[in-house]
Amino acid sequence: MVNECNLNDVLVRPNTYDPEADDDKTTTTTWSSGPAAAMLGQFRDGATTRDSSMDVSTDGSGEVRRAKWGRSIEFLLSCVALSVGFGNVWRFPQVAMENGGGAFMIPYLIILFLVGRPMYYLEMVMGQFSSRGCVKVFDLSPLMRGVGVGQTLIMALILGFYSAVLSISVRYLIASFSSTLPWARCSSDWTNCVNSESLTRVFNSTTHRPSAEFYFNEDIIHSESIKESGVLGWPDYNLALCLLFCWICITVILIRGIRSSGKAAYFLAIFPYVILLVLLVQVCSLEGAWDGISFLLKPQWEKLLDVKVWQAAVTQCFFSLTISLGAVIVFSSYNNFSNNIYRDSMIISWLDTFTSLMSGFIVFGILGNIASITGNTVETLKETLKLGGPGLTFITYPDAIAKLEAGRNVFAVLFFLMFFLLGLGSNTGIVTTIVSGVKDRYPQLTDWKVVSVVSIYGFSTGLIYITPGGFDVLGVVNDYGVELTVLTLVILEIVTFCWVYGVNRICHDIKFMLDISTGIFWRVCWGFVTFTIIFTIWIFSMKNFTAHDVPDGLNALGWCLFALVVVQVPLWAVYAVSKRTETGLAKKIIAASHPTPDWGPESPSTQMQYKTEVRKRAEEKLASGKSIGTRLCPIFSE
């Protein structure tokens, strides 16, 4: 058994490391005088004056410094804009519908409490403490750096279809300026169509569908199954122009770095709630709305034994809070060192849950109204309507707006402007995560160059999803390249943070940073509960996974995406081990699992204090005879 003191002693002795062993670490410089020392307080307080996401010291050392949010409220609102977005308004109602409404709610709330909140707080802690992005944060264990690289690749996959959904919202926004909402009434060539603006029930018409559904599938995306047509088809030129507009907006917001996106968060985070609250009041007044809402809230206890429901709850939790995707780590890395992230994580996680429920009430209230008018039940609407992908959102919300007796055009404009802003917040957060991963590795690159390249990539991949068969591709990419990979990487992330680095050390880091003690709930979740839940669901998910009903080549592409993301872990592990100068494979692996010499707070003086404390704690453990095993069983110890 290796003694913990020996490990911690390695962590705090930079002079014993070969500089060639960690070629990607930043230079550690101790400043006691000169311009850099004078600027140190500014960096600590976040009072930097540059707009780029990385600043460079003026002492000639070339030391790269990370910019900070202008104010702590900008961080809070940016996280709200990131987390409270498409994951809530689009994805939550869709996943709830696919998994039986009330059957989904209980697992979802349990997962939020035992997995979502602990992981959200943990990622905030690691990002703020180290001032590193989702790749560089694995300086705490370079052996596992591939986890951060894989998370960045997942974000790149998500970016394509999130921007496509954003372009659809712009298309609806433009259509809302028509004198008559184009989805409110049926077209002559739509068979078995019911006007969405109608409040009159259609008897004996269980096969009828609202005009909003026809408008979305026939006029907007020209939906056509790849399996039936055999081709993907060409992008709709109207949506392509909308997609280009979206990427121009994202580029303009981010091209000057984190500070410009922080200012935009004031509007991106607050305005959507005004529209959602108004729409919720409108929906609750519709006939049959409460039948739909009760379907969402009514438990189906037998479904608790269905592992697919639990898997859906976990993945929705990750999408909703944007955890295990690197974004939370990146956003918190721009915080001041002493910012109260415990408070922020609680506010954001509860607000996220509230928004998901509010969106669920709106969508299922509208479904209840549609069921009442067409003579269906909410349970059968999934089969009656074509609700795949984002379709549920772009059918139910417009259907509700069409039923407004007055000001429907004005409200349609406001709603789709809100939806656009929500998506803009989510997409800017994703791009920020990718840009941070690139710039942490290549800090000499300027913001506008990285943002421009990412934007070109996002626009190019987004074109795929606005083709007639694009939603089939979206389903494959989402299930193979995102959901399965997120489940896999989050397990490795927990192992790295909580077991390799250690829950005990995390708690000491929190005490050093925030001067607060970590409660037993967080210790139990980080050390055991969260990992056990996710690992169990991952096993059953892999065992019960079924291929999509699409051409074999598309399923093969899905598995290739899964392999591309997951293979980053062993590849980067081999690279980290190969850079070590120790003799013997076992010693190389152990050394590669230790933090790099510069791991810790960004400020040189604060890092010096931190390393002194770590060394002192290691000596105390050595004297008490405690071993490395305390890192794996830290729940009841401080």
UniProtKB/TrEMBL annotation:
Name the domain of life. Eukaryota
What GO annotations for molecular function exist for this entry? amino acid:sodium symporter activity; L-amino acid transmembrane transporter activity; metal ion binding
| Positions that bind Na(+) 2 | S320
What is the protein's membrane topology class? Multi-pass membrane protein
Q: Spell out the PROSITE patterns in the cross-references.
A: NA_NEUROTRAN_SYMP_2, NA_NEUROTRAN_SYMP_3
Give compartment(s): Membrane
Q: Which UniProt keywords apply?
A: Amino-acid transport, Glycoprotein, Ion transport, Membrane, Metal-binding, Sodium, Sodium transport, Symport, Transmembrane, Transmembrane helix, Transport
Transmembrane ranges, per UniProt, are 75-92, 104-122, 153-174, 237-255, 267-290, 310-334, 346-367, 410-438, 450-468, 480-500, 520-541, 556-578
Alphabetized InterPro entries for the sequence: Na/ntran_symport (IPR000175), SNS_sf (IPR037272)
- GO terms under cellular component: plasma membrane
- Please list the residues that bind Na(+) 1: V84, N88, L422, S426
Which Pfam families has this protein been placed in? SNF (PF00209)
Primary location class:
membrane
Any Gene Ontology biological process: amino acid import across plasma membrane
Report the protein's function. Unusual broad substrate spectrum amino acid:sodium cotransporter that promotes absorption of the D isomers of essential amino acids. Neutral amino acids are the preferred substrates, especially methionine and phenylalanine.
Question: Could you say which protein family the record assigns here?
Answer: Belongs to the sodium:neurotransmitter symporter (SNF) (TC 2.A.22) family.
Q: What is this protein called?
A: Sodium-dependent nutrient amino acid transporter 1
